[in-house]
Automatic annotation (TrEMBL):
Gene Ontology BP terms: steroid biosynthetic process
Protein name listed in UniProt: Estradiol 17-beta-dehydrogenase 11
InterPro entries recorded: NAD(P)-bd_dom_sf, SDR_fam
Enzyme class: oxidoreductase
EC number: 1.1.1.62
Organism: Sus scrofa
Similarity field: Belongs to the short-chain dehydrogenases/reductases (SDR) family. 17-beta-HSD 3 subfamily.
Length: 341
């Protein structure tokens, strides 16, 4: 009996998300032009930040690239110039508020007012709470969320004055689901999602509708820093497919981008079953044994295996997975969006 009640609740949601995705597939939103825009990307020396810079270079934007890694930063800038874009590289420590503010002043003086800000830099340490050192927790929040406040405070005023601009928050699927042994990281990404949502509402309240916001929430991204991946919430994504979705999301002014798209459905599902102890992070290899979720196991697998087929741009090609269930040596992805998240 419980199975049929759950099915009655879930099938309408499945239908809604499927129809929504099909509608977007057949009636795509017009992409805006960003030619000549000044785009600042943090964590541009590697991974997602670097690839995002390349795509904006192809769109003939003027690029401002920030990273703590000078060598990687210069490589990114050189390639952007080869692609025909003007690129300005600044070595910036995104964990240092004063460095962010002083670098922002240099950017305004030497390049101009930033009109698209991509807060991409991130760090991640994998260990349990007690093995995570206090400075590591502080660094995680300094880079993954506090830097978003400082960069936005520095560059948003000009956007608001012109009622034109775009703030992009690179968050994570981990900003919607708790993951063991990533306590600091998940907390910082929950904060990043909240930052995006609150900023979006604040801009609307201030009637600055010309300043757009986008939040990217992908599963973990394969940038070479996550070792020995295993099964978890979903596929370990390739950075190229994430960047394609991100750029399209910015150009079509999407507020939230979930990769894979099924994460959006699962977050709604978790909310629906919050009183039944449904856990989004229970979608792993232990699903069939000892799960506290009241949704039948067969139905869970049905959702996981069939829903992505109906949703747009689901990355089936990524067969690798990541899990932080077993703590080991800390992995610090310093000031580079190695997870995208």
């Amino acid at each position: 009996m419980r199975f049929f009640l759950d099915l009655l609740l879930l099938l309408p949601l499945l239908l809604i998300f499927t129809l929504e995705s099909l509608l977007k597939l057949f009636i795509p939103k017009k992409r805006k032009s960003v030619t000549g825009e000044i785009v600042l990307i943090t964590g541009a020396g590697h991974g997602l930040g670097r690839l995002t810079a390349f795509e904006f270079a192809k769109l003939k934007c003027k690029l401002v690239l920030w990273d703590i890694n000078k060598h990687g930063l210069e490589e990114t800038a050189d390639e952007c110039k080869r692609l025909g874009s003007k690129a300005h590289a600044f070595v910036v420590d995104c964990s240092d508020r004063e460095d962010i503010y002083s670098s922002a002043k240099k950017v305004k003086a030497e390049v101009g007012d930033v009109s698209i800000l991509v807060n991409n830099a991130g760090v991640v340490y994998t260990s349990d709470l007690f093995a995570t050192q206090d400075p590591q927790i502080e660094k995680t929040f300094e880079v993954n969320i506090l830097a978003h406040f400082w960069t936005t405070k520095a560059f948003l005023p000009a956007m608001m004055k012109n009622n034109h601009g775009h703030i992009v928050t690179v968050a994570s699927a981990a900003g919607h689901a708790g993951i063991p042994f990533l306590l600091a990281y998940c907390s910082s990404k929950f904060a990043a999602v909240g930052f995006h949502k609150a900023l979006t509402e604040e801009l609307a309240a201030l009637k600055r509708t010309g300043v757009k916001t986008t939040c990217l929430c992908p599963n973990f991204i394969n940038t070479g820093f996550i070792k020995n991946p295993s099964t978890s919430l979903g596929p370990l994504l390739e950075p190229e497919e994430v960047v394609n979705r991100l750029i399209n999301g910015i150009l079509t002014e999407q507020k939230m981008i979930f990769i894979p798209s099924s994460i959006n459905f699962l977050t709604v599902l978790e909310s629906l079953y919050k009183n039944r102890n449904f856990k989004l992070a229970k979608y792993n290899e232990g699903l069939s044994s000892g799960s506290s979720c009241r949704v039948p196991v067969m139905l869970k697998h049905f959702i996981l295996l069939t829903l992505p087929c109906f949703l747009r741009n689901h990355p089936h090609s990524s067969a690798r997975h990541f899990s932080a269930r077993k703590p080991g040596t800390n992995i610090c992805c310093t000031y580079k969006s190695t997870t995208g998240t």
